[in-house]
Structure formats: C-alpha cells, structure tokens
Write a structure and sequence with these properties.
With 634 residues, this protein is α/β, with parallel strands linked by helices. Helix content is 45%, strand content 15%. The longest helix is centred in the last third of the chain and has 23 residues. It is globular, with a radius of gyration of 27 Å.
Amino acid sequence: MNINDILKQYWGFDNFRPLQEEIINAVMEGKDTLALLPTGGGKSVCFQVPALAKEGLCLVVSPLIALMKDQVENLKQKGIPALAVYSGMSFLEVKKTLQNAAYGNYKFLYVSPERLETGLFLEFLPAMNINLLAVDEAHCISQWGYDFRPTYMRIAALREQLPGVPVLALTASATKTVQDDICEKLLFGKTQQRLQQPFERPNLSYSVFNVPSKQNKLLEILKNVPGSAIVYCKSRKHTKDIADLLQMHAINADHYHAGLSNADRNLRQENWINNNTRVIVCTNAFGMGIDKPDVRTVVHYDVPDCIENYYQEAGRAGRDGKRAYAVLLYSDRELQDLQQQSELRFPNEAELKNIYTAIMNHLQIAAGTGEGMSYDLDIAAFTSAFKLNILSASYAIKALEQEGLFSFNEVFFKPSSVVFTTNREELEEFEKNYPALEAICKGLLRSYEGIFDFPATVYETQLAKFLRMETEAVKTDLKKLHDHGIINYTPQKDKPQLTLLLNRMYADNYSINVAGYLKRKQNFEQRVAAIINYIKKETGCRSKMIADYFSASSIETCGICDNCIREKAVYLSIDEFQNIAGRITQLVKENYIPVKQILEQLNGIKNEKIWKVIDFLLAEKKLMVNKQGDVKNV
C-alpha cells in the first residue's frame, strides 16, 4: 500500500496535514529527518504511516509513559499490532514483550530511553527487523534545551546496531542551537533534512495582561469568549482553587494534575475532550498527545518558565483554524520571583550530594548496587522523613536526573500482574487441600494464556465479573495464593517511580559534571530573560517575537495580538472605523456568520482593521460570538 492508501484505511483521511507528506517522503527515501511540528500537528502520523508502508518494525523512543500507552492502545484499536517497554516493568514482562517484537507480527515497539542499553534489549535487537527509528520529544537529547534527559544520549550508540536505518526526530519546539544539537547528537547523515511548519498562526491572538486581580480578568475572558478552554497553573493546589472559583460563577470547570489517580485523570480528560467539561484548569502535566481542535482559549494564569513551554501550551488553542485566544496573566512580583528561580532550580554541589545520599538511604540502597532497579518514591514522605524543603528536593531530583544517575516518573501507572510459581501437578494438589481457592485458580488459567510461563497483566475488576465475585474478594484470594507460594501477585501501582540508571555511588566516588551543570544553569537564565522580555515588551508583533526566538524564517505581523492592535489603532480613523462597523453590522444582521465570510465580503479593507473593529464591537457587546467563532449582532 502507498502512504495515501494507508492514511485513508487506518485514519480515514483523504489528505495529509501541512508538512506531513514531505516528512513521510523524506523518511521513505531513507533520509535522517528532523521534523518540527506544533502540538496537535500530527507528529505520530509522520512515523506511523511510513513504518506501515515498509517491511519490518518501527522502534519509537519516547520519555512519556502515558503517551506511549495511549498510542499503543490507539494503534491496537486500528488493528495495528504494537508493543511498549518502559521503566517499572518486571524482567519477565520485558523479556516477553521483546520476544514478541523480535519474532511476532508486530509493527511498532515503543521504548523508554533508559531501556535502550540494557543487556536484554540488545540481546533481542538483532532479531528485530527495524525499518525506522523514531525519536519523539527529540529536544530532550540536547543539554541546551529546556527539558534535557541524559538517557536520550544512548540513542546514538543504538545507531551503530542499526546501519542504514533512517532516524526521524520529532519535536514541537526547538531553538536553532537545539536543532543543531539534535542532529549532531543523533549522528544525522549528509542527506539529512529539516522540515519545520511555519510559526504563523493567523487565527491565534496572543495577549499579555498585568492586572491587579487575575481572578476577575479570568472570569471576564471566559465570559466574553465562549467555548472550550484551558487554564494553566503552576501548582496543583492552584488548579483546584481556580476550578472551584469558576464553578462558583456558573462556569463548568474541573481541575487536572499529576497527583490525581490514573482513573481520575482519564475521566477528567475525556469529559473535557467530549465537551462535558468546558474549562480544564491544569498543570503542564495536561495536554501531551491531546488533539482537540476546537479550543477557543488558553489562559496562562501563572507565568511560564520559558517560551518553549509557552508556545507549545498556547498553541493548543485554535487548531481548527478558527479565531482563538492565548492570554498570559502576570504580576510584577511573579517576574521578580522568576528572575530568582535560578538559585532554587540549580542547588549547589553540596546540596545535590546531600539529597542524593538522603534518597539512597531512604530507599535503603547499598553502595555499589541498584542499577536497573525501580523503587516507589513518595516525595512528601521522603522530604518529611529527612526534614527537607519539598520544592528544593524536587529540583534537586530533576538536576540529579539530568546527570544520568536515575530517572524519575512522577506520573506512573502499572497494572497488576500474576504468574504461577508452581507446576500443574502441585497446583492440582493445592486445589484439593484449599477448595475455597479453586475458583480463582481456574479463573486465572481460563482468562490468561501463558500465565504459567510469563506474568500476565490482570485487571481484578474484569476477573471479578468473569468469576461473579466482588472485586475485593478477588484481590483477597490473589493475596492468599501469593502467600501460599502458588502465584507471584504484584498489585497495581499508581505511585511515582525512581529507576536507578547507575549503581549507588560510594561516598568518596561521588561526582557530577560541574561544567555541564553550570552551563545548563546559564541556559535557564537566558530562557527566563527571553520570556520576561516577551511579557514586558509592548511593541512589536508577538507572533514575530516567538518566531524570532526559534530563529524561524521571517513571518508577517499577525495584526491581531495585543501589540499589533495597539500599533494598528493609530491608522484607523473615526470615519474608517464607522464605515467598517456599519458594513459589519449590515452583514451579520440576525444570523451568525463566519468571520472568514466577513473578511471576504469586505475585500479591499485590510484584515487587521476588520479584526480591530470586530474586537471592539465584541468588547462593547455590540456583537456576540458562538462556540464556532462565528459572530452576529446582539
């Protein structure tokens, strides 16, 4: 099948989105390719389609476990066989998955980066017919980026095992320096291509407000602009407080953060996607991999740390091409605090060593041991036990993670697993002696093929329905079987997990790369300076500012951001304004019509002037707008 037939069969689309086809063709030609596509731009299609068009298996490297699981599940629903290996899986689970990838009829294997150099993975790699290496969130490989993850450095070594296999690196945002670093670190060949979607978003209006009351401004924004919305906050507590505030004012809202259970997060996300919830108030844990095109407003209630994050999060508004708003609220105090963040985010060497030692002691890991092992780490309990500041400890953990000592997954869900640890003869004897547990044994054997050889993922609720038992009774019986040594039962986990990438260092051998650490600190300070400049600058197009930050090709002024509107206002005379307003009023009359139609009808008048008048009429409540972004007279 060719790539268009694949797109039609599995995704139901007749045409690719902008740039997707060019990226896919580059991959099909065997070229190493760096693809920069915004959030919701369809990055996954860029490796999934060519992988399906070629013989063999696509290896996908991703640091986001929740996103890996979602994509594997989505592929399976399309009838495309896919697998995933990530931190927290047992040895037997990983082995079974890799065996299936090597010898089964699978098209995709998703792998977290820390798995790439394990002996088990490298043992099975030669048997996998890899047709493409896709690197998602590719900016993580660069020390000079905003989300450096040292485990990504292992990908280059993997290329030596895969001669002739092209690499597709994907990211939503990367500066020119980071782009160069990605291509260098991934050992891109001479025929490499870089394909980047233009930064122009002609329908997205950026604006920044310094207001005495953020609460009142947020309420004003959400009341003036109907439709789906996201409100980003920095703290978990803030998300609930703001969601409660909105509900008090009859705005349908809910909150979302990484501290909620897996089931809660999924339910709240689905309610918002299906428009059962209008406004989701969240931390930046929300949004990855979500393609909801009809988001009308994204509000940053707190100042983001860098333009990379802001561009990615704000860009979730208006993916359907209709008018949308990206609003950033700030106070002078926030900017002062942000300038002081460097010392907090980058603790000195002594503090880092102290927290590293405390973590190892808390988890009871002996020096010279622990590599490849995963441990539950409740940061609140840890910091309380060692009388540490929880914020300082969190940043120290991030810094130590960037040193490649361990990986830390704050959002981690692992379902229950069961494997029999006895043979069939002993099991029959056990069932005679313990008849009350015979039903659960038979239920496991009938429900999970191969459970004698490999751990099976078990969902107690489903097993309970099959056996016509209560879920809690099933869990109790499984624990009894485990205690009798008949099975190895690992209940589900929904806790943060720390995975050691290196054995615990002896006290006299403790060391980190100080020069690299200080350089990352300097880069952080530069990113802070850039976002503060973006916020405080009251002249110049905001879209152009963002494009210039990423060293993108020059774009036209948007004409609809707050700065552009201020600058254009001087060129709109009273007579011009009244003429345009009168013609708009005549056009809209009593029925909603798309703004695009107004722009076409007023051909000959600059779009910026029309938008300026529409914005004024909306603000004065002389026009109203519906969820689709269409307008009519009040």
